[in-house]
Specification:
With 191 residues, this protein is of the alpha+beta class. The chain has one domain. The protein has four helices and nine strands. The strands form two sheets. Strands 3, 4, 5, 6, 7, 8 and 9 form a seven-stranded antiparallel beta sheet that branches. Strands 1-2 form a two-stranded antiparallel sheet. A hairpin with a 3-residue loop joins strand 4 and strand 5. Helix 3 packs parallel to helix 4. Zinc ion binds next to loops.
């Protein structure tokens, strides 16, 4: 159910494994982040962050929006943090469920995760809203740094907000795209 990603150096301190729910699988998690972070990505042999305006892939390749939240899961009696990744399709249904039950997405909300088949979107069903959460994990920088490690972006500074982190990260995301663009077209030519 869990895919562990390993990273080198001090950045590894900020890495979080992506929470994977396999086909037919179920998993309960507790939200830690205050709100999801939405990012646009492209698939170029691997997932890469779209840097926006000057992106070399936009217009040529489809992009998709992905939401991210830091969550915790009880694994063999131990509470462990993970990064939950979900698509707009999953989020749309989840938002409807939240509205229906008049529940707010915030730290401490339990979510039951379910995936019917490999190709079907992750189903997110809200549960109890008053589960315990960890203020350290609820800190936005925990979410930003976990994202930074996954996409090879700079870690956020002590007082960074989402906006300042995005401003610092996008030039790096753009240069990563340009490097990948060269390699990707070479791979496509040789394929
Ligand atoms: Zn793009």
């Amino acid at each position: 159910m869990f895919v562990h990603q390993s990273f080198d150096g001090t950045r590894s301190a900020f890495s979080l494994s992506l929470l994977k729910v396999s086909a037919g699988g179920r998993c309960d998690c507790v939200v830690q982040s205050s709100s999801p972070l939405w990012l646009d990505t492209h698939w170029v042999g691997r997932q890469i962050l779209c840097p926006g305006e000057e992106c070399p892939f936009c217009g040529n390749l489809p992009s998709r929006s992905q939401g991210y939240l830091v969550v915790t899961v009880d694994v063999a009696g131990e509470t462990k943090p993970f990064l939950l990744e979900f698509t707009g399709t999953s989020a749309l249904r989840f938002d409807e469920r939240l509205r229906f039950f008049e529940i707010e997405l915030k730290p401490g909300l339990e979510i039951s995760l379910f995936r019917k088949s490999k190709r079907s979107p992750l189903v997110m069903e809200p549960g109890a809203a008053d589960r315990a959460f960890d203020p350290c994990l609820a800190d936005d920088r925990r979410l930003l740094n976990a994202i930074a490690v996954i996409f090879g972006l700079p870690l956020c500074a002590a007082k960074s907000s989402r906006a300042t982190w995005a401003v610092e990260s996008m030039p790096v995301a753009l240069s990563l795209c340009r490097t990948r663009e060269g390699k990707f077209s070479a791979e496509m030519c040789s394929a």
